[in-house]
Protein backbone atom coordinates (compact mmCIF):
# COMPACT_ATOMS: atom_id res chain seq x y z
CA UNK A 1 0.00 0.00 0.00
CA UNK A 2 1.55 3.43 -0.92
CA UNK A 3 2.07 5.87 1.98
CA UNK A 4 -0.49 8.31 0.52
CA UNK A 5 -3.23 5.64 0.81
CA UNK A 6 -2.53 5.16 4.50
CA UNK A 7 -2.78 8.90 4.90
CA UNK A 8 -6.13 9.04 3.00
CA UNK A 9 -7.72 6.51 5.35
CA UNK A 10 -6.82 8.40 8.48
CA UNK A 11 -8.98 11.56 8.21
CA UNK A 12 -8.87 13.44 11.53
CA UNK A 13 -12.16 14.37 13.18
CA UNK A 14 -11.58 18.17 13.23
CA UNK A 15 -13.72 19.66 10.42
CA UNK A 16 -11.19 22.38 9.50
CA UNK A 17 -8.49 19.82 9.05
CA UNK A 18 -10.68 17.55 6.98
CA UNK A 19 -11.33 20.33 4.57
CA UNK A 20 -7.66 21.14 4.20
CA UNK A 21 -6.54 17.54 3.79
CA UNK A 22 -9.37 16.81 1.37
CA UNK A 23 -8.16 19.57 -0.93
CA UNK A 24 -4.69 17.97 -0.90
CA UNK A 25 -6.30 14.66 -1.69
CA UNK A 26 -8.27 16.00 -4.65
CA UNK A 27 -5.13 17.71 -5.97
CA UNK A 28 -3.34 14.37 -6.01
CA UNK A 29 -6.28 12.64 -7.71
CA UNK A 30 -6.39 15.34 -10.40
CA UNK A 31 -2.72 14.96 -11.21
CA UNK A 32 -3.12 11.15 -11.45
CA UNK A 33 -6.18 11.57 -13.69
CA UNK A 34 -4.10 13.59 -16.19
CA UNK A 35 -1.66 10.69 -16.51
CA UNK A 36 -4.53 8.22 -17.41
CA UNK A 37 -4.91 7.05 -21.03
CA UNK A 38 -8.32 7.21 -22.91
CA UNK A 39 -9.01 3.47 -22.19
CA UNK A 40 -8.90 4.02 -18.44
CA UNK A 41 -11.10 7.12 -18.72
CA UNK A 42 -13.80 5.16 -20.59
CA UNK A 43 -13.58 2.34 -18.00
CA UNK A 44 -14.07 4.75 -15.07
CA UNK A 45 -16.93 6.55 -16.83
CA UNK A 46 -18.79 3.25 -17.38
CA UNK A 47 -18.14 2.20 -13.76
CA UNK A 48 -19.49 5.54 -12.48
CA UNK A 49 -22.59 5.28 -14.66
CA UNK A 50 -23.31 1.75 -13.39
CA UNK A 51 -22.97 3.00 -9.81
CA UNK A 52 -25.42 5.81 -10.55
CA UNK A 53 -27.98 3.36 -12.00
CA UNK A 54 -27.70 1.11 -8.92
CA UNK A 55 -28.11 4.11 -6.59
CA UNK A 56 -31.22 5.32 -8.45
CA UNK A 57 -32.71 1.81 -8.31
CA UNK A 58 -32.21 1.56 -4.52
CA UNK A 59 -33.62 5.05 -4.03
CA UNK A 60 -36.71 4.26 -6.05
CA UNK A 61 -37.47 0.99 -4.29
CA UNK A 62 -36.63 2.05 -0.74
CA UNK A 63 -39.84 2.22 1.40
CA UNK A 64 -38.91 5.60 2.86
CA UNK A 65 -39.03 7.28 -0.50
CA UNK A 66 -41.75 5.12 -1.98
CA UNK A 67 -44.48 7.71 -1.68
CA UNK A 68 -42.55 10.53 -3.26
CA UNK A 69 -41.36 8.17 -5.97
CA UNK A 70 -44.96 7.09 -6.57
CA UNK A 71 -45.95 10.72 -6.70
CA UNK A 72 -43.29 11.65 -9.22
CA UNK A 73 -44.30 8.61 -11.24
CA UNK A 74 -47.90 9.78 -11.13
CA UNK A 75 -46.87 13.20 -12.29
CA UNK A 76 -44.79 11.75 -15.08
CA UNK A 77 -47.66 9.52 -16.16
CA UNK A 78 -50.01 12.48 -15.93
CA UNK A 79 -48.15 14.01 -18.85
CA UNK A 80 -49.14 10.94 -20.85
CA UNK A 81 -52.72 11.21 -19.54
CA UNK A 82 -52.52 7.84 -17.76
CA UNK A 83 -52.62 8.75 -14.09
CA UNK A 84 -53.00 12.29 -12.83
CA UNK A 85 -52.58 13.52 -9.30
CA UNK A 86 -50.36 16.01 -7.61
CA UNK A 87 -49.10 19.40 -8.74
CA UNK A 88 -50.59 22.87 -8.66
CA UNK A 89 -53.02 22.43 -11.57
CA UNK A 90 -54.34 19.23 -10.03
CA UNK A 91 -54.76 20.94 -6.65
CA UNK A 92 -56.64 23.77 -8.31
CA UNK A 93 -59.10 21.29 -9.85
CA UNK A 94 -59.49 19.53 -6.51
CA UNK A 95 -60.19 22.79 -4.64
CA UNK A 96 -62.64 24.00 -7.25
CA UNK A 97 -64.59 20.75 -7.26
CA UNK A 98 -64.65 20.56 -3.45
CA UNK A 99 -66.00 24.08 -3.06
CA UNK A 100 -69.51 24.02 -1.57
CA UNK A 101 -71.84 26.51 -3.22
CA UNK A 102 -74.54 26.53 -0.53
CA UNK A 103 -74.24 27.78 3.03
CA UNK A 104 -73.10 25.01 5.39
CA UNK A 105 -72.80 22.71 2.41
CA UNK A 106 -71.06 19.37 2.88
CA UNK A 107 -67.61 18.72 1.47
CA UNK A 108 -67.60 15.09 0.42
CA UNK A 109 -64.98 12.69 -0.85
CA UNK A 110 -66.89 10.14 -2.94
CA UNK A 111 -64.88 6.97 -3.53
CA UNK A 112 -65.95 4.82 -6.49
CA UNK A 113 -67.30 8.00 -8.10
CA UNK A 114 -67.04 6.63 -11.64
CA UNK A 115 -69.11 3.65 -10.57
CA UNK A 116 -72.87 3.33 -10.95
CA UNK A 117 -74.00 4.52 -7.50
CA UNK A 118 -71.00 6.86 -7.10
CA UNK A 119 -71.87 8.80 -10.24
CA UNK A 120 -75.49 9.34 -9.20
CA UNK A 121 -74.62 10.33 -5.63
CA UNK A 122 -71.87 12.72 -6.78
CA UNK A 123 -74.15 14.41 -9.33
CA UNK A 124 -76.94 14.82 -6.78
CA UNK A 125 -74.59 16.27 -4.14
CA UNK A 126 -73.15 18.73 -6.65
CA UNK A 127 -76.64 19.73 -7.77
CA UNK A 128 -77.58 20.45 -4.15
CA UNK A 129 -74.61 22.80 -3.80
CA UNK A 130 -72.26 20.54 -1.84
CA UNK A 131 -68.56 20.25 -2.60
CA UNK A 132 -67.60 16.92 -4.15
CA UNK A 133 -64.35 15.20 -5.07
CA UNK A 134 -64.51 11.82 -6.75
CA UNK A 135 -61.91 9.07 -6.51
CA UNK A 136 -61.83 5.98 -8.68
CA UNK A 137 -59.24 3.56 -10.02
CA UNK A 138 -61.22 2.90 -13.23
CA UNK A 139 -60.52 -0.82 -13.04
CA UNK A 140 -61.67 -3.10 -15.85
CA UNK A 141 -64.00 -5.40 -13.86
CA UNK A 142 -66.57 -4.16 -16.36
CA UNK A 143 -66.36 -1.94 -19.42
CA UNK A 144 -64.04 0.97 -18.45
CA UNK A 145 -65.52 3.02 -21.34
CA UNK A 146 -68.75 3.20 -19.36
CA UNK A 147 -66.81 4.50 -16.34
CA UNK A 148 -65.10 7.09 -18.55
CA UNK A 149 -68.46 8.16 -19.95
CA UNK A 150 -69.77 8.62 -16.39
CA UNK A 151 -66.62 10.62 -15.62
CA UNK A 152 -67.39 12.84 -18.62
CA UNK A 153 -70.88 13.42 -17.23
CA UNK A 154 -69.48 14.29 -13.80
CA UNK A 155 -66.87 16.67 -15.16
CA UNK A 156 -69.52 18.49 -17.16
CA UNK A 157 -71.27 19.19 -13.86
CA UNK A 158 -68.06 20.32 -12.16
CA UNK A 159 -67.18 17.12 -10.30
CA UNK A 160 -63.49 16.31 -10.58
CA UNK A 161 -62.67 12.59 -10.39
CA UNK A 162 -59.19 11.82 -9.14
CA UNK A 163 -57.78 8.69 -10.72
CA UNK A 164 -56.26 6.51 -8.05
CA UNK A 165 -56.68 3.58 -5.72
CA UNK A 166 -58.04 3.74 -2.17
CA UNK A 167 -55.01 1.65 -1.20
CA UNK A 168 -52.72 4.56 -2.07
CA UNK A 169 -52.16 6.21 1.31
CA UNK A 170 -49.96 8.95 -0.17
CA UNK A 171 -52.80 10.02 -2.44
CA UNK A 172 -55.38 9.93 0.36
CA UNK A 173 -53.14 11.97 2.66
CA UNK A 174 -52.61 14.48 -0.11
CA UNK A 175 -56.37 14.83 -0.62
CA UNK A 176 -56.94 15.28 3.13
CA UNK A 177 -54.09 17.82 3.16
CA UNK A 178 -55.59 19.91 0.41
CA UNK A 179 -59.25 19.64 1.48
CA UNK A 180 -61.03 19.54 4.83
CA UNK A 181 -63.67 16.93 4.11
CA UNK A 182 -66.78 16.98 6.30
CA UNK A 183 -67.87 13.56 4.96
CA UNK A 184 -66.57 10.56 3.06
CA UNK A 185 -69.11 8.66 0.96
CA UNK A 186 -67.31 5.39 0.45
CA UNK A 187 -68.65 3.44 -2.53
CA UNK A 188 -65.45 2.06 -4.07
CA UNK A 189 -65.47 -1.72 -3.89
CA UNK A 190 -65.08 -4.87 -5.87
CA UNK A 191 -68.74 -5.61 -6.49
CA UNK A 192 -70.38 -8.75 -7.89
CA UNK A 193 -71.02 -12.08 -6.22
CA UNK A 194 -69.93 -14.56 -8.91
CA UNK A 195 -66.63 -12.89 -9.87
CA UNK A 196 -65.31 -13.67 -6.37
CA UNK A 197 -64.74 -17.27 -7.47
CA UNK A 198 -62.59 -16.02 -10.36
CA UNK A 199 -60.63 -13.26 -8.66
CA UNK A 200 -60.89 -13.50 -4.86
CA UNK A 201 -57.83 -11.26 -4.37
CA UNK A 202 -59.58 -8.24 -5.87
CA UNK A 203 -62.22 -8.40 -3.08
CA UNK A 204 -59.57 -8.48 -0.38
CA UNK A 205 -57.67 -5.65 -2.11
CA UNK A 206 -60.58 -3.22 -2.43
CA UNK A 207 -63.14 -4.24 0.19
CA UNK A 208 -60.82 -5.03 3.07
CA UNK A 209 -57.32 -3.60 2.56
CA UNK A 210 -58.68 -0.54 0.73
CA UNK A 211 -61.34 0.12 3.36
CA UNK A 212 -58.79 -0.10 6.18
CA UNK A 213 -56.47 2.25 4.29
CA UNK A 214 -59.28 4.76 3.83
CA UNK A 215 -60.22 4.57 7.51
CA UNK A 216 -56.57 5.11 8.44
CA UNK A 217 -56.53 8.31 6.37
CA UNK A 218 -59.86 9.42 7.93
CA UNK A 219 -58.63 8.70 11.46
CA UNK A 220 -55.46 10.77 10.89
CA UNK A 221 -57.37 13.72 9.42
CA UNK A 222 -58.02 16.75 11.55
CA UNK A 223 -60.96 17.23 11.81
CA UNK A 224 -61.96 13.64 11.07
CA UNK A 225 -64.78 13.34 8.52
CA UNK A 226 -67.99 11.38 9.15
CA UNK A 227 -68.10 8.26 6.97
CA UNK A 228 -71.06 6.75 5.14
CA UNK A 229 -70.24 3.57 3.25
CA UNK A 230 -71.91 0.86 1.17
CA UNK A 231 -72.31 -2.48 2.81
CA UNK A 232 -74.69 -4.89 1.11
CA UNK A 233 -77.85 -6.95 1.53
CA UNK A 234 -75.59 -9.91 0.77
CA UNK A 235 -74.46 -9.88 4.43
CA UNK A 236 -77.77 -11.62 5.25
CA UNK A 237 -76.39 -14.66 3.40
CA UNK A 238 -78.27 -17.80 4.31
CA UNK A 239 -80.66 -15.95 6.63
CA UNK A 240 -84.19 -17.16 5.79
CA UNK A 241 -86.23 -14.90 8.06
CA UNK A 242 -88.05 -12.33 5.92
CA UNK A 243 -88.07 -9.42 5.51
CA UNK A 244 -84.41 -8.96 6.42
CA UNK A 245 -84.00 -6.69 9.39
CA UNK A 246 -80.81 -5.07 10.74
CA UNK A 247 -81.02 -7.20 13.88
CA UNK A 248 -81.06 -10.50 11.94
CA UNK A 249 -78.09 -12.88 11.70
CA UNK A 250 -75.30 -11.84 9.35
CA UNK A 251 -72.77 -14.51 10.21
CA UNK A 252 -73.52 -16.90 7.34
CA UNK A 253 -72.24 -15.20 4.18
CA UNK A 254 -72.84 -17.22 0.99
CA UNK A 255 -70.06 -15.58 -1.04
CA UNK A 256 -66.63 -14.04 -0.54
CA UNK A 257 -68.15 -10.69 -1.61
CA UNK A 258 -70.65 -10.96 1.25
CA UNK A 259 -67.89 -11.99 3.66
CA UNK A 260 -65.81 -8.91 2.77
CA UNK A 261 -68.82 -6.63 3.30
CA UNK A 262 -69.50 -8.27 6.65
CA UNK A 263 -65.81 -7.84 7.50
CA UNK A 264 -66.20 -4.17 6.58
CA UNK A 265 -68.99 -3.81 9.15
CA UNK A 266 -66.74 -5.29 11.85
CA UNK A 267 -63.80 -3.11 10.77
CA UNK A 268 -66.11 -0.08 10.98
CA UNK A 269 -66.91 -1.04 14.56
CA UNK A 270 -63.21 -1.15 15.43
CA UNK A 271 -62.39 2.27 13.96
CA UNK A 272 -65.44 3.77 15.64
CA UNK A 273 -64.49 2.21 18.96
CA UNK A 274 -60.78 3.09 18.97
CA UNK A 275 -60.61 6.36 17.05
CA UNK A 276 -64.04 7.95 17.43
CA UNK A 277 -64.92 7.86 13.74
CA UNK A 278 -68.60 8.40 13.00
CA UNK A 279 -69.52 5.57 10.60
CA UNK A 280 -72.78 4.62 8.90
CA UNK A 281 -73.09 1.43 6.84
CA UNK A 282 -75.84 1.15 4.23
CA UNK A 283 -76.96 -2.30 3.12
CA UNK A 284 -78.07 -1.70 -0.47
CA UNK A 285 -80.54 -4.17 -2.03
CA UNK A 286 -79.99 -4.84 -5.80
CA UNK A 287 -79.70 -1.30 -7.12
CA UNK A 288 -80.68 -0.70 -10.75
CA UNK A 289 -81.22 2.21 -13.14
CA UNK A 290 -79.69 4.34 -15.89
CA UNK A 291 -75.87 4.22 -16.07
CA UNK A 292 -76.08 0.89 -14.24
CA UNK A 293 -73.66 -2.01 -13.99
CA UNK A 294 -73.29 -4.31 -17.03
CA UNK A 295 -72.58 -7.32 -14.77
CA UNK A 296 -76.07 -7.20 -13.24
CA UNK A 297 -78.93 -9.38 -14.51
CA UNK A 298 -81.34 -6.60 -15.57
CA UNK A 299 -78.50 -5.08 -17.64
CA UNK A 300 -77.16 -8.19 -19.40
CA UNK A 301 -80.70 -9.55 -19.89
CA UNK A 302 -81.49 -6.36 -21.80
CA UNK A 303 -78.45 -6.86 -24.00
CA UNK A 304 -79.26 -10.55 -24.62
CA UNK A 305 -82.92 -9.88 -25.41
CA UNK A 306 -82.00 -7.20 -27.95
CA UNK A 307 -79.42 -9.53 -29.52
CA UNK A 308 -81.93 -12.39 -29.74
CA UNK A 309 -79.79 -14.53 -27.42
CA UNK A 310 -81.28 -16.74 -24.70
CA UNK A 311 -81.42 -15.51 -21.09
CA UNK A 312 -80.64 -17.95 -18.29
CA UNK A 313 -83.32 -17.81 -15.63
CA UNK A 314 -82.12 -19.55 -12.51
CA UNK A 315 -84.40 -21.47 -10.19
CA UNK A 316 -83.66 -22.36 -6.59
CA UNK A 317 -84.42 -25.70 -4.88
CA UNK A 318 -87.94 -27.12 -5.61
CA UNK A 319 -88.18 -25.01 -8.79
CA UNK A 320 -88.68 -21.86 -6.76
CA UNK A 321 -88.08 -18.67 -8.73
CA UNK A 322 -85.31 -16.38 -7.50
CA UNK A 323 -86.50 -12.99 -6.28
CA UNK A 324 -84.77 -9.70 -5.58
CA UNK A 325 -85.79 -6.54 -3.78
CA UNK A 326 -84.85 -4.35 -6.79
CA UNK A 327 -84.23 -0.78 -5.63
CA UNK A 328 -84.20 2.17 -8.00
CA UNK A 329 -81.09 4.32 -8.00
CA UNK A 330 -82.90 7.58 -7.12
CA UNK A 331 -84.28 5.97 -3.96
CA UNK A 332 -80.77 4.82 -3.03
CA UNK A 333 -79.42 8.33 -3.58
CA UNK A 334 -82.10 9.70 -1.23
CA UNK A 335 -81.10 7.09 1.35
CA UNK A 336 -77.45 8.15 1.04
CA UNK A 337 -78.47 11.78 1.55
CA UNK A 338 -80.48 10.79 4.62
CA UNK A 339 -77.40 9.07 6.05
CA UNK A 340 -75.01 11.94 5.21
CA UNK A 341 -77.36 14.60 6.59
CA UNK A 342 -78.03 12.82 9.88
CA UNK A 343 -74.41 11.74 10.49
CA UNK A 344 -72.99 13.39 13.58
CA UNK A 345 -69.33 14.47 13.47
CA UNK A 346 -66.50 12.12 14.35
CA UNK A 347 -65.10 12.79 17.79
CA UNK A 348 -61.39 12.02 17.42
CA UNK A 349 -58.50 14.31 16.65
CA UNK A 350 -54.88 13.57 15.83
CA UNK A 351 -55.66 9.85 15.64
CA UNK A 352 -57.12 9.82 19.20
CA UNK A 353 -60.70 9.27 20.29
CA UNK A 354 -62.13 12.13 22.38
CA UNK A 355 -65.58 10.67 23.02
CA UNK A 356 -68.18 8.16 21.79
CA UNK A 357 -69.12 8.49 18.12
CA UNK A 358 -72.07 7.38 16.01
CA UNK A 359 -72.05 3.84 14.57
CA UNK A 360 -75.06 2.86 12.45
CA UNK A 361 -76.25 0.27 9.92
CA UNK A 362 -79.37 0.56 7.75
CA UNK A 363 -81.12 -1.46 5.07
CA UNK A 364 -81.85 0.48 1.89
CA UNK A 365 -84.22 -1.64 -0.18
CA UNK A 366 -87.54 -1.29 -1.96
CA UNK A 367 -89.49 -3.68 0.32
CA UNK A 368 -91.25 -5.48 -2.54
CA UNK A 369 -89.27 -8.38 -4.04
CA UNK A 370 -89.91 -9.31 -7.69
CA UNK A 371 -89.12 -12.70 -9.22
CA UNK A 372 -86.65 -12.98 -12.08
CA UNK A 373 -89.31 -14.20 -14.61
CA UNK A 374 -91.33 -11.06 -13.79
CA UNK A 375 -88.21 -8.93 -14.32
CA UNK A 376 -87.80 -10.52 -17.78
CA UNK A 377 -91.49 -9.92 -18.58
CA UNK A 378 -91.15 -6.22 -17.73
CA UNK A 379 -88.04 -5.93 -19.90
CA UNK A 380 -89.84 -7.65 -22.81
CA UNK A 381 -92.65 -5.11 -22.52
CA UNK A 382 -90.34 -2.07 -22.50
CA UNK A 383 -88.02 -3.43 -25.20
CA UNK A 384 -90.93 -4.71 -27.30
CA UNK A 385 -88.93 -7.89 -27.94
CA UNK A 386 -89.75 -11.42 -26.79
CA UNK A 387 -87.01 -13.05 -24.70
CA UNK A 388 -85.70 -16.56 -25.31
CA UNK A 389 -85.99 -18.04 -21.83
CA UNK A 390 -83.70 -20.77 -20.68
CA UNK A 391 -84.75 -21.98 -17.22
CA UNK A 392 -81.85 -23.62 -15.35
CA UNK A 393 -81.04 -24.70 -11.83
CA UNK A 394 -79.14 -22.08 -9.85
CA UNK A 395 -75.45 -23.01 -9.69
CA UNK A 396 -73.62 -22.87 -6.37
CA UNK A 397 -71.87 -19.59 -7.04
CA UNK A 398 -72.66 -17.42 -4.05
CA UNK A 399 -76.09 -16.17 -5.13
CA UNK A 400 -78.91 -16.39 -2.60
CA UNK A 401 -82.51 -17.36 -3.57
CA UNK A 402 -84.19 -14.12 -2.47
CA UNK A 403 -83.73 -10.77 -0.76
CA UNK A 404 -86.36 -8.65 0.95
CA UNK A 405 -85.65 -5.54 2.99
CA UNK A 406 -87.30 -4.29 6.11
CA UNK A 407 -86.58 -0.55 5.96
CA UNK A 408 -88.42 0.60 9.09
CA UNK A 409 -85.23 1.81 10.77
CA UNK A 410 -84.14 3.84 7.73
CA UNK A 411 -87.65 5.30 7.42
CA UNK A 412 -87.65 6.48 11.03
CA UNK A 413 -84.05 7.65 11.34
CA UNK A 414 -83.07 8.72 7.80
CA UNK A 415 -86.48 9.73 6.43
CA UNK A 416 -85.96 7.06 3.74
CA UNK A 417 -89.02 6.38 1.59
CA UNK A 418 -88.56 4.38 -1.64
CA UNK A 419 -91.12 5.41 -4.24
CA UNK A 420 -90.11 3.83 -7.58
CA UNK A 421 -91.56 0.44 -8.54
CA UNK A 422 -89.74 -1.92 -10.90
CA UNK A 423 -92.05 -1.16 -13.89
CA UNK A 424 -91.30 2.56 -13.68
CA UNK A 425 -87.61 2.16 -12.90
CA UNK A 426 -86.93 -0.32 -15.70
CA UNK A 427 -88.72 1.95 -18.16
CA UNK A 428 -86.19 4.66 -17.32
CA UNK A 429 -83.32 2.18 -17.54
CA UNK A 430 -84.39 0.90 -20.97
CA UNK A 431 -84.76 4.46 -22.26
CA UNK A 432 -81.21 5.26 -21.13
CA UNK A 433 -79.85 1.98 -22.50
CA UNK A 434 -81.29 2.59 -25.95
CA UNK A 435 -79.96 6.13 -26.03
CA UNK A 436 -76.53 5.16 -24.79
CA UNK A 437 -75.99 2.06 -26.92
CA UNK A 438 -78.16 3.15 -29.80
CA UNK A 439 -80.74 0.33 -29.30
CA UNK A 440 -80.92 -2.40 -31.93
CA UNK A 441 -79.74 -5.97 -31.73
CA UNK A 442 -75.98 -5.31 -31.95
CA UNK A 443 -75.76 -2.95 -29.00
CA UNK A 444 -73.66 -3.03 -25.87
CA UNK A 445 -70.99 -5.58 -26.62
CA UNK A 446 -68.29 -4.85 -24.07
CA UNK A 447 -65.71 -5.09 -26.84
CA UNK A 448 -67.52 -2.81 -29.26
CA UNK A 449 -66.86 0.54 -27.67
CA UNK A 450 -67.04 2.23 -31.06
CA UNK A 451 -70.77 1.51 -31.17
CA UNK A 452 -71.32 3.32 -27.89
CA UNK A 453 -72.82 6.76 -27.92
CA UNK A 454 -73.01 9.13 -25.02
CA UNK A 455 -76.36 10.84 -24.81
CA UNK A 456 -77.16 11.21 -21.09
N1 LIG B 1 -75.32 -1.93 -7.20
C1 LIG B 1 -75.80 -2.75 -6.29
O1 LIG B 1 -76.80 -3.44 -6.52
C2 LIG B 1 -75.16 -2.87 -4.94
C3 LIG B 1 -75.76 -3.66 -3.96
C4 LIG B 1 -75.16 -3.77 -2.72
C5 LIG B 1 -74.02 -3.07 -2.43
N2 LIG B 1 -73.43 -2.31 -3.39
C6 LIG B 1 -72.21 -1.59 -3.06
O2 LIG B 1 -72.37 -0.25 -3.44
C7 LIG B 1 -71.12 0.30 -3.87
C8 LIG B 1 -71.26 0.88 -5.25
O3 LIG B 1 -71.66 -0.14 -6.13
P1 LIG B 1 -71.85 0.08 -7.67
O4 LIG B 1 -72.98 -0.75 -8.11
O5 LIG B 1 -71.83 1.52 -7.99
O6 LIG B 1 -70.50 -0.62 -8.20
P2 LIG B 1 -69.47 -0.12 -9.32
O7 LIG B 1 -68.57 -1.27 -9.57
O8 LIG B 1 -70.19 0.45 -10.46
O9 LIG B 1 -68.70 1.04 -8.57
C9 LIG B 1 -67.55 0.84 -7.77
C10 LIG B 1 -66.46 1.74 -8.29
O10 LIG B 1 -65.35 1.62 -7.41
C11 LIG B 1 -64.16 1.61 -8.19
N3 LIG B 1 -63.16 0.89 -7.41
C12 LIG B 1 -63.12 -0.43 -7.12
N4 LIG B 1 -62.05 -0.72 -6.38
C13 LIG B 1 -61.39 0.45 -6.18
C14 LIG B 1 -60.20 0.80 -5.52
N5 LIG B 1 -59.46 -0.12 -4.90
N6 LIG B 1 -59.80 2.09 -5.52
C15 LIG B 1 -60.54 3.03 -6.16
N7 LIG B 1 -61.67 2.75 -6.83
C16 LIG B 1 -62.09 1.48 -6.84
C17 LIG B 1 -64.53 0.92 -9.48
O11 LIG B 1 -63.68 1.30 -10.55
C18 LIG B 1 -65.96 1.36 -9.68
O12 LIG B 1 -66.03 2.47 -10.56
C19 LIG B 1 -70.13 -0.83 -3.76
O13 LIG B 1 -69.49 -0.77 -2.52
C20 LIG B 1 -71.00 -2.07 -3.82
O14 LIG B 1 -70.38 -3.17 -3.20
C21 LIG B 1 -73.98 -2.19 -4.64
From TrEMBL:
Membrane-traversing stretches: 41-60, 105-125
Enzyme class: isomerase
Reactions catalysed, as given in the entry: UDP-alpha-D-glucuronate = UDP-alpha-D-galacturonate
UniProt entry keywords in alphabetical sequence: Isomerase, Membrane, NAD, Transmembrane, Transmembrane helix
Domain NAD-dependent epimerase/dehydratase: 108-342
Keyword Membrane applies: yes
Subcellular localization(s) per the UniProt record: Golgi apparatus, Golgi stack membrane
EC number assigned by the record: 5.1.3.6
Pfam families (UniProt xref): Epimerase
Membrane topology field: Multi-pass membrane protein
Family to which the UniProt record says this protein belongs: Belongs to the NAD(P)-dependent epimerase/dehydratase family.
Protein name: UDP-glucuronate 4-epimerase
Amino acid sequence: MPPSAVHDCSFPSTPGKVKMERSNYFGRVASRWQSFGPGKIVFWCVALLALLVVAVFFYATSPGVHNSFEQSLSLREAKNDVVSWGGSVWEKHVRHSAHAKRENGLVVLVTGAAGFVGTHVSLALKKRGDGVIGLDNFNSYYDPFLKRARQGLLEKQGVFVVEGDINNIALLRKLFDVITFTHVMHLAAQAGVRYAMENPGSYVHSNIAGFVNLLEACKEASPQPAIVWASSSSVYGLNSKVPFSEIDRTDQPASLYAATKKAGEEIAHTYNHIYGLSITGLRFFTVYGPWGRPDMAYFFFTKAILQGKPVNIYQGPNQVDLARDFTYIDDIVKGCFGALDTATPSTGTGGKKRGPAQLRVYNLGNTSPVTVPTLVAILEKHLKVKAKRNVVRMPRNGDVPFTHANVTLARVELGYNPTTDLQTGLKKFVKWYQLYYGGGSSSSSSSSSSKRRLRP
